[in-house]
Amino acid sequence: MGTDFRSDTVTRPTDAMRDAMMTAAVGDDVYGEDPTVNQLEAVTAEMLGKEAGLFMPSGTMANQVAILTHTERGDEVFIHRDNHAYYYEGGAAAMWGGVTWNLLEGIEGTPTPEILRKAIRPKNIHHPNPRLLCLENTHNRAGGAAIRLDRLVPLIDEARSYGLGVHLDGARLFNAAIAFGISGRDLAQPVDSVSICLSKGLGAPVGSVLLGSRPFIDRARIFRKWLGGGMRQAGIIAAAGLYALTNNVQRLEEDHGRARLMAHALSEMGYQVMLPAVPTNMVMLDFPVAVATHAVDHLAQNQVLVGTMGPQRVRLVTHLDIDDEGVTHALRVFRDLSEHIHA
């Protein structure tokens, strides 16, 4: 299979995680009777400073349930045009929630208060009801950029002044927390709801958790049912999430270190490396369009798998299945590729 940098979603459960799954206490979670699911939801809520949590099969479902819970049909949702909930979730919010997107600009996927202020329309029978601001941290399409609180808080305060709720797609929130040396709770504190993904850098095989106030989560549970997200003896997979939260948060710094090493080495080779202000576990390279497909094929032929983001951008993501040897091999192949490109 080679060294797989396509995403941190490709991680496989460790033997210790599989043992935790095998011995998990289970019950019927739709009845609220799975003790391991209940524990995961409680532990995650405590970690992020929210009243309650709701276990979901995926991050997309967590984001869509959040939007459904915050809004009514026709409401206006403000979101950066590169935010995951808009860009990568198949138009689900339009299909299920019937919401109106208002697409915003902003550096590293994050609007400024001024950008949001200009997007707010006066109350008028011709305009949709402004209801929700969606954010993302870390921001995938911004190169895995960790977004500072001093950038987010003024934006959130501006949203509050217009009565907007605020949802944070925190699929890789713990990557941001590690990058800043603060807690996930600190980053989640200003928002009304937050989703975290257990199956990316944390290494669980499946699952996300949506967090918010208890009334919010009670309402969200209805929408999870609508979308088919009620699971039965889900403690088997929730146990993997508990193991991940206990053992794999601090080790994210190893992924960040390897990504920094790769970014520096690739830049020295002459590659055009995208460098966010606060990087985490992603490295993005821009190739001329005519070269990009050849580059991806050459890498794959030499057992280095990478992702693409458009016709010329290549993405590498470090994770717990990537070790120092894998990084060394990848850099060797990239050096060879550079010689081919410039031959």
- Order of adjacent strands in the largest pleated sheet: 2-8-7-6-5-3-4
Order of helices and strands: EHHEHEHHEHEHEHHEEHHHEEHEEEH
Number of strands: 13
Q: Averaged pLDDT, please?
A: 96
The level of helicity is 40-55%
CATH topology description of the largest domain: Aspartate Aminotransferase, domain 2
- Any low-confidence stretches, pLDDT <50, length ≥5? none
CA-based gyration radius? 20 Å
Structural class: alpha/beta
- SS field, number of helical segments: 14
Strand content: 15-25%
The CATH class of the largest domain is Alpha Beta
Mind telling me which CATH architecture of the largest domain this is?
A: 3-Layer(aba) Sandwich
Q: Gap between N and C termini, in Å?
A: 29 Å
Number of separate structural domains: 2
